[in-house]
């Protein structure tokens, strides 16, 4: 999920006309070790949205945990990965190792039945702005922002300017923000999305519908963490189904 999320964030934060310099520096220096997901949780649904349990690209090293006997299958995806792998004590992988790795992926895929028609979501959710279900889910939603805190693709941030006591220095600080915060949508001195229903609609619609218009992909990787960490037990998949 993180690999898929990095691809989405790259489209947003490395956009040619307005790249985020700090993000670009951190991405350039990052050494990515990906892990094949062999035990998806009950809330995982990446197969519904074009993903899967096996990282395919954008990693330096990929690990797949095998059993009977226990071992790790390691694959280098870049020259940096090959350089690191060359320094480690390893054995060449045999056909039985590769077959076992494929079996790990297959079992994980079978554990995640398709729950949503991912590629069709922008069309299916279009025109739901005034759907009464937004008010229904808002009765449960606490607007706490947990879902945005654990989401690997949420990128909203805010800037604050302040002067530390005892200095004449002006400091500008960037910090993460959530679209569930009332202040997130302030324009002209007032909140544009003053209700929980409006803020939940903004979050779900952006992830599964309008993100693709901006960046050519959905803004969700199907990791299910928003459902796992929601204190009210709200399931993004079920809410999307109710709107379609």
Describe the fold and architecture:
The protein has 244 residues and is an alpha+beta fold. Helix content is 38%, strand content 13%. It has ten helices and seven strands. A hairpin with an 8-residue loop joins strand 4 (157-162) and strand 5 (171-176). The two termini are 25 Å apart. 25% of the residues are buried. The mean pLDDT is 93.
Lay out the secondary structure.
Blueprint: H1 2-13, H2 21-29, E1 33-35, E2 61-66, E3 71-76, H3 79-85, H4 95-110, H5 121-125, H6 133-138, H7 146-150, E4 157-162, E5 171-176, E6 186-187, E7 190-191, H8 196-215, H9 225-228, H10 236-243
Parallel strand pairs: 1-2
Antiparallel strand pairs: 2-3, 4-5, 6-7
Summarize the structure.
This protein has 244 residues and is α+β, with helices and mostly antiparallel strands. The chain has helices spanning 2-13, 21-29, 79-85, 95-110, 121-125, 133-138, 146-150, 196-215, 225-228, 236-243, and strands at 33-35, 61-66, 71-76, 157-162, 171-176, 186-187, 190-191. The two termini are 25 Å apart.
Low-pLDDT parts are none
Q: Would you tell me the structural class of the helices and strands?
A: alpha+beta
Strand tally:
7
Strand percent estimate: 5-15%
Question: Gyration radius, to the nearest Å?
Answer: 21 Å
Could you say which overall geometry the principal axes of the C-alpha atoms support?
globular
In helices, the fraction of residues equals: 25-40%
Instruction: Give the averaged pLDDT, no decimals.
Output: 93
Straight-line distance between termini = 25 Å
* Secondary-structure element order, N to C: HHEEEHHHHHEEEEHHH
Report on the biggest sheet: 3 strands, mixed
Number of helices: 10
- Strands side by side in the biggest sheet: 1-2-3
């Amino acid at each position: 999920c993180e690999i898929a999320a990095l691809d989405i964030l790259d489209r947003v934060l490395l956009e040619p006309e307005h790249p985020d310099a700090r993000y670009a520096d951190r991405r350039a220096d990052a050494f990515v070790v990906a892990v094949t997901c062999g035990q998806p949780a009950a809330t995982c649904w990446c197969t519904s949205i074009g993903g899967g349990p096996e990282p395919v690209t954008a990693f330096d090293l990929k690990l797949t945990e095998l059993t009977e006997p226990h071992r790790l299958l390691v694959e280098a995806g870049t020259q940096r990965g090959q350089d690191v792998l060359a320094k480690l004590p390893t054995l060449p992988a045999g056909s039985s190792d590769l077959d076992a790795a494929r079996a790990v992926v297959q079992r994980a895929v079978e554990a995640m039945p398709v729950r949503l028609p991912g590629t069709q979501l922008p069309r299916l959710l279009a025109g739901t702005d005034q759907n009464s279900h937004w008010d229904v889910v808002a009765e449960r939603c606490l607007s706490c922002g947990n879902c945005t805190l654990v989401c690997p693709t949420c990128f909203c941030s805010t800037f604050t300017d302040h002067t530390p006591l005892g200095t004449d220095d002006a400091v500008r600080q960037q910090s993460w923000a959530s679209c569930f915060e009332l202040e997130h949508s302030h324009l002209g001195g007032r909140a544009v999305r003053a209700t929980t229903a409006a803020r939940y609609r903004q979050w779900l619609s952006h992830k599964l519908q309008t993100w693709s218009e901006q960046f050519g992909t959905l803004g969700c990787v199907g990791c299910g963490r928003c459902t796992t960490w929601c204190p009210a037990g709200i399931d993004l998949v079920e809410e999307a189904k109710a709107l379609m």
